[in-house]
Amino acid sequence: MPRWSQAMFGTPEGPWNLTRRIEAKLGPRLKVDAVIEVNPPRAEEALKIKRESFVKDAYKDTVILPSVGEFRKRVDEGKAKEPRAILVATPPIVRGGLQEHNNLEVQLNKLFPNAAIFLEKPVATGTPFEQSVGEAIKVGQLLEKEHKPPVSVGYVLRYLKAVQEMKKIIKENNLTVMATNARFVVAYELAIKTEWWNKDIMQGPVIEQATHICDLARYFGGDIDIDTVCAHALEAHEKPGVLSKKNFDESVIPDDLRIPRATSASWYYESGAVGTMLHAIALHGVDYAIELEVYADGYQLILADPFGTPALHVRRPGSDQIEVHPTPGDDPYQTEMNHFIDHIEGGPEPELLSTYEDAARTYELTWAIRNSSEEWTRRTLAKKGKSA
Ligand SMILES: NC(=O)c1ccc[n+]([C@@H]2O[C@H](COP(=O)([O-])OP(=O)(O)OC[C@H]3O[C@@H](n4cnc5c(N)ncnc54)[C@H](O)[C@@H]3O)[C@@H](O)[C@H]2O)c1
């Protein structure tokens, strides 16, 4: 049972909430010994709500600490037990590296070698990109080699029933994926954090958000020949990029740091198959428009609305009709947490679908997309005699 989780309490934006899922999986066995938080009032506020709810016992003795080192001290002093699991949901800028400010995984491996670790996606964000991607890959190798308990990364879409059904169809019919086509279109009214709209801080929406669909494309297409990635972006300063429903003040972000409104990318997989991806910040309201199409000889498999009401659309040899398999109520956040805990405890669903090293490759892909699109923006502006 986890004795400690670094809990993510989240914004009003979406359905993710790790603590709710771990509470559901462990019930009264959950004991959260500490929340590591640099903004203690935020953790206090969240803990207050937890302590007024039916899960209050799990948070009875939770302390708020500034660092994982402080938690180690409490364990050494006998004030807390060794944790069995650690949940990491800090912003990726403060982890996934080898420098003092972002070497969290290295510290966790040293301080808590017996704790299973769950980390939110993406595994890192940072600059310069060569260093950040290189270090994330090294962290993955280090964890693989040195960290005995499981390490799981929250690429939650891999845990959808519809995604697993797609995998099953591919396996059972011995199919080879020819092409993937991914779409992640955001409803932006509730995206109110200014940092998210500043690519200097969160590194932009492909790295921070489309990472989900890029990862899923890799889950089906396999490794990508990274040199073949090519992308174009509709930048914030272009007329088609004007947005009318923003609920934050973008004027505080310098023009060149504003995030692109749409990014379209394509690549070769190592297998020779091809992939494309569109990310756009275009819709009003709440729900995102997300889809992944996977093609193989005779087959079209479409994952629709993965964060809403997920469904699988299948066309097979022998008929031009599309079968629709809705999976209402599927909660992949719960499934990924169930798998994580089952892996620790030898439960019925122990498969971990995203390793750190694999996740670091997805991070590499998203940087390659951003770099290529920025290069094309520079070239296009230069043609008009302007600079980015
Ligand atoms: N799987 C999903 O669908 C999904 C959805 C949303 C967010 N996420 C991921 O969750 C992570 C957190 O996102 P968020 O929007 O909740 O972030 P956030 O900016 O709200 O930060 C989460 C908490 O971490 C704290 N924090 C910041 N630096 C810290 C440090 N050095 N040590 C300890 N605490 C620190 C912040 O004060 C905050 O309370 C990101 O990796 C994000 O991509 C995943």
Automatic annotation (TrEMBL):
<dbReference type="InterPro" id="IPR000683">
    <property type="entry name" value="Gfo/Idh/MocA-like_OxRdtase_N"/>
</dbReference>
<dbReference type="Pfam" id="PF01408">
    <property type="entry name" value="GFO_IDH_MocA"/>
</dbReference>
<dbReference type="InterPro" id="IPR013944">
    <property type="entry name" value="OxRdtase_put_C"/>
</dbReference>
<feature type="domain" description="Oxidoreductase putative C-terminal">
    <location>
        <begin position="158"/>
        <end position="299"/>
    </location>
</feature>
<dbReference type="GO" id="GO:0000166">
    <property type="term" value="F:nucleotide binding"/>
</dbReference>
<protein>
    <submittedName>
        <fullName>NAD binding dehydrogenase</fullName>
    </submittedName>
</protein>
<dbReference type="InterPro" id="IPR036291">
    <property type="entry name" value="NAD(P)-bd_dom_sf"/>
</dbReference>
<dbReference type="InterPro" id="IPR052515">
    <property type="entry name" value="Gfo/Idh/MocA_Oxidoreductase"/>
</dbReference>
<feature type="domain" description="Gfo/Idh/MocA-like oxidoreductase N-terminal">
    <location>
        <begin position="27"/>
        <end position="155"/>
    </location>
</feature>
<dbReference type="Pfam" id="PF08635">
    <property type="entry name" value="ox_reductase_C"/>
</dbReference>
